[in-house]
Amino acid sequence: MRTREDVAPFLDAFHAIGIGDNEPSWLTTHRSTAMERFAELGVPGRDLEAWRFTDLRLLTANPIVPVAVASGAFDATALEPYKLPARAHRLVLVNGRFEPALSQIGELPPGAWIGSTAEALTTRPELVRQVGLDSVDTTGAQAFMSLNAGLFTDGFILALEPGVALETPVEILHFADASDANAFHMRNAIVLGASATASVVETFAGSGSGWTNTVTKIQLAESARLRHVKIQVEAPEAFHISMLRASLAARAAYEVFTATLGARLSRQDMQIDLEGEGADLALHGTYLLRGDQEATLAPFVNHRVQNCHTSEVLKGVLDERAHGVFLGLITVSPGADGTEAHQLNRNLLLSPNARVDTKPELEIYADDVKCSHGATVGDLDEASLFYLLARGIEPATARHMLIEAFVGDLVETAGLEGALAEHARKHISTWFDRPEAA
User: Fold this and answer.
1) Are 306 and 332 in contact (CB under 8 A)?
2) Does the chain have fewer CB atoms within 10 Å around its N or its C terminus?
3) Which residue numbers in the chain have pLDDT < 70?
4) What is the pLDDT of residue 135?
């Protein structure tokens, strides 16, 4: 069978750069099978419903494949603007690989482990095998997830045994230093035992036209609690695609805050299963775009059992020719009575050329549920703008204030406090000062 043109460069890269050398045979087999699945699926096109609003032509016109990067001195000062303004267990990945000299994991309590995926393959291979990998890699319909399984070189893993509480946040700083086009595939995992708690802050930054493709698997055992903050401020010519797969056991709580400000093209897919009674998901997020930026946020939440709760609030701000996409689906499975699930997507269009495609959906197959969904698209409130102008505030300042208020309350409703709130607000505020995206 002739290889499809859209996958051939990736298959060539897989065989050329020697990924899989000196690895366990089970991983080599998994990689090869995943690449075969990617070859079957091909790069997603607009003929697929889930991808019909996402334009991948810029990514596929000149395929970005992993290339060997000569090791050299990295200017560590480039990381300073992106660091969490507080003490943290910090793990730094540059161009998709763990940099121990730039990291500062520090002392961990008994029962806690933080490290790179490459390190775990040597010291804790079963953790990677049982948690980091996924049957979807080889049998599912997620092409970029299969590609990631074949090409990943590193990533991070956080594992907490039952009852372990990390008082200090875990900071994962991803930096792409891509003067030439390069691809960085990272495979991550977060595993919290029963009643364990942690906060994880991921920040994606860098320079150049690189492509970041990450897959993160999260497992929360009974009564575990995870707060997860993701800030994406990559270079305006970069590409960012991520897949997050999470499973929540009984009474587990997963709190997510995501802010998308960078990259020419970005897409975040989330597949979250509430599998234990009383599980709770709170998802808050924003995309702030200008120029020709395009961003897609696509959370899929499945309520599999009764008495679980989901709250989603996502807001977009789009200027110039930017394009935002929200694809949100909440499914309530048969027997999942007592479900409470609410979904809201609100958008501000600051230019007549900006556009939004929003598609919030509910699929309910159970009785006795409380569910709602909605979406709004509009400009700044004219009455509020007039109120500020009437008090002598300059038009640009007044618009800035209203936009910042529109987005800023997400930080509060997400429950972010202290250094986490400061980190999120700082990067959101930089959007107002950034030049037009490329």
Assistant:
1) no
2) N
3) 1-4, 18-21, 68-73, 180, 434-438
4) 92
Beta strands, E only, 333-413: 340-349, 355-364, 370-378
Which bin fits 37, alpha (ψ -120 to 50), beta or left (φ > 0)?
alpha
Sequence letter at residue 345: N
Location of structure tokens 């479900």: 339
Q: How far is CA 156 from CA 11, 33, 315, 366, in A?
A: 25, 23, 29, 38
By the 8 A CB rule, do 105 and 119 touch?
A: no
| pLDDT number for residue 1 | 40
CA distance to 16, 17, 218, 242, 327, per residue, from 188 (Å):
24, 21, 9, 11, 24
What is the per-residue pLDDT for 438?
Answer: 37
Summarize pLDDT for 60-80 with one digit per residue, the tens: 888 888 876 655 567 889 999
The rounded distance, in Å, linking the Cα atoms of 178 and 186 is: 16
Write the DSSP assignment of 134-190 as a string of letters: -THHHHSS-HHHHHHHHH--B-EEEEE-TT-B-SSPEEEEEEEEESS--EEEEEEEE
E strand or H helix at 127:
helix 125-127
- For 91, phi and psi rounded to 5 degrees? -125, 125
At 97, list the tokens: 């690989």
d(CA 297, CA 324): 8
Provide, for the chain, the percentages of residues in helix, strand and coil under a 3-state DSSP scheme, each rounded to the nearest 5: 25, 40, 35
User: In the prediction, which pLDDT does 23 show?
Assistant: 84
Strands 294-303 and 253-260: unpaired
In Å, the largest CA–CA distance within the chain is 71
Q: What is the DSSP letter of 433?
A: G
Main-chain dihedrals φ then ψ at residue 357, nearest 5 degrees: -115, 115
Q: Is-contact 28 271, C-beta < 8 A? A: no
Q: How far is CA 200 from the centre of its chain?
A: 12
* Residue 207: count of CB within 10 angstroms of its CB: 16
What is the pLDDT at residue 372? 96
- pLDDT value at residue 201: 98
Length in residues, the chain: 438
In contact, 293 and 354? CB cutoff 8 Å: no
